[in-house]
Design brief:
This protein has 334 residues and is an alpha/beta fold. It has 15 helices and 12 strands. It has 2 domains: 18-190, 3-Layer(aba) Sandwich (Rossmann fold), CATH 3.40.50.10490; 211-330, CBS-domain (Roll), CATH 3.10.580.10.
Length: 334
């Protein structure tokens, strides 16, 4: 289908009613989040500790728009180190209750706390002593009265002109769910490496790849500093990294010889020289725990194709590996 572009003289035209509606949404959300920030108390900590104490998963449930927010909360929990699963309350009443165990905790969302479809889940939780965390705005609601931990959401006007469509209320639920996930991450000391394990694909995974994940560690091309050049050339030809690491007698790295070094030092007496005469001393290095993107940036800046990987805490300077620019590119780094 062909879509006509707006003429240049129509671009940027402002409909004041649109901006007023948008700003009302923002203002209502900002005021409600501020009220929520002031309202959270020990019950929030109790919710965190309840989740930390379980050996199973957080089962999240909600109906309608609350259910959609619940799906996002479950996904955020699962991706940040807290196993979680969303169960639709209607499906729960038709067999999915079998997925809920005594090792789990239930996190149930309902803005008014009176969603009829949640009743079977509430009954099941009480019958089998499954910890129940409720999230609602009415402290006297059926959900919060049945909950072991009640997360009370401030009552706030919806931004909908009729005051009916969930807008502010779902924003509050989403923010409170994110707050739970972040608090749990900090309690568990959830690291960037753990986060990467759950996000191996896409840009997030690539951003968190470390040098140790890509570096070559086996069969490194090594020669001692007094090795004659024929031996250096043989080792350079044997490998696929385009370099040779020059070490001292104890195996500590002293320098590196690349094809470029060979070309720059070629002379009639070249074959009579030793590795120490040709090597580049103090080559650029990377740490094994360094982000690979950072190491790639260094290679691009210095216009080199490999980095020697050393542990800065190891005074012997024994090489741990070599990071080649081609390995970074194959991993999708740019």
């Amino acid at each position: 289908m062909h879509v006509e572009k707006a003429p240049d003289d129509q671009k940027g035209q402002v409909h004041t009613g649109d901006l007023t509606a948008a700003r009302r949404v923002f203002d209502y959300a900002q005021d409600a989040i501020g009220a929520l920030s002031q309202a959270i108390d020990g019950d929030f900590t109790r919710a965190v500790e309840t989740i930390l104490a379980i050996r199973g998963r957080v089962i999240v449930s909600g109906m309608g728009k609350s259910g959609l927010i619940g799906r996002k909360i479950a996904a955020t929990l699962a991706s940040t180190g807290t196993p979680a699963q969303f169960i639709h309350p209607g499906e729960a009443s038709h067999g999915d209750l079998g997925a809920v165990t005594r090792q789990d905790a239930l996190l149930m969302l309902s803005y008014r706390g009176e969603t009829a479809e949640l009743s079977d889940l509430i009954t099941y939780a009480k019958r089998f002593s499954v910890p129940l965390i409720g999230m609602a705005s009415n402290p006297d609601s059926a959900l919060l009265r049945a909950s072991d931990v009640a997360l009370l959401i401030p009552r706030a006007p919806e931004a909908c002109p009729n005051g009916l469509a969930p807008t502010t209320s779902t924003t509050l639920m989403l923010v409170l769910g994110d707050a739970l996930a972040v608090a749990l991450m900090e309690r568990k000391s959830f690291s960037a490496d753990q986060y990467r394990n759950f996000h191996p694909g896409g840009s997030l995974g690539r951003m968190l790849i470390r040098v140790c994940d890509l570096m070559r560690t086996s069969d490194l091309p090594l020669v001692v500093e007094d090795a004659p050049m024929p031996d250096v050339l043989a080792e350079l030809q044997r490998g696929t990294l385009g370099c040779v690491i020059v070490t001292d007698a104890q195996g500590g790295a002293l320098g590196i010889i690349t094809h470029g070094d060979i070309g720059r030092t070629i002379a009639p007496d070249f074959l009579s020289r030793r590795a120490r005469d040709v090597m580049t001393r103090g080559p650029k290095t990377a740490r094994p725990d360094q982000l690979a993107a950072e190491a790639l940036a260094l290679m691009n800046e210095r216009q080199i194709t490999q980095l020697l990987v050393l542990d800065p805490a190891d005074r012997t300077r024994k090489p741990l590996g070599i990071l080649h620019i081609h390995d970074c590119l194959r991993a999708g780094l740019q």
